[in-house]
From TrEMBL:
InterPro entries in the cross-refs: RVT_2
Protein name: Reverse transcriptase Ty1/copia-type domain-containing protein
Pfam families hit by this protein: RVT_2
Stretches assigned to the Reverse transcriptase Ty1/copia-type domain: 2-112
Length: 114
């Protein structure tokens, strides 16, 4: 994030203020998070969906992993358990994550596994 115009003093451009509240209450937070996430995930060979910017796909041979981003929740879907595990392990090295286990609902839709 950059200092807003008018909030820097000459000779003190590198100084910043300590925030007394969470960054998530700021209007720029979700955009900053999305930009960072997009840069990181593309670096792991995921391709952003042209029609839904919250859906990414990674293909390796006959294996495919879809990553669905909903605010700050990630849903991984794929046909290769090892590739899913590798993706999840890699993501946890890039972001502070908590594994919530298998999803049973997403956006109010019940997921039935096979």
């Amino acid at each position: 994030m950059d200092q807003s115009e008018g909030f820097t003093s000459v000779g003190e451009e590198q100084k910043v203020c300590h925030l007394q509240r969470s960054i998530y209450s700021l209007k720029q937070a979700s955009q900053s998070w999305n930009i960072r996430f997009d840069e990181v995930i593309r670096g792991y060979d995921f391709i952003k969906n042209d029609f839904d910017p919250c859906v990414y796909k990674k293909v390796s041979g006959s294996s495919v992993v879809f990553l669905v981003l909903n605010v700050d929740d990630i849903l991984l879907i794929g046909n290769d358990v090892k590739m899913l595990g590798d993706t999840k392990a890699w993501l946890s090295t890039q972001f502070s994550m908590k594994d919530l286990g298998e999803a049973s609902y997403i956006l109010g839709i019940k997921i039935i596994g096979g």
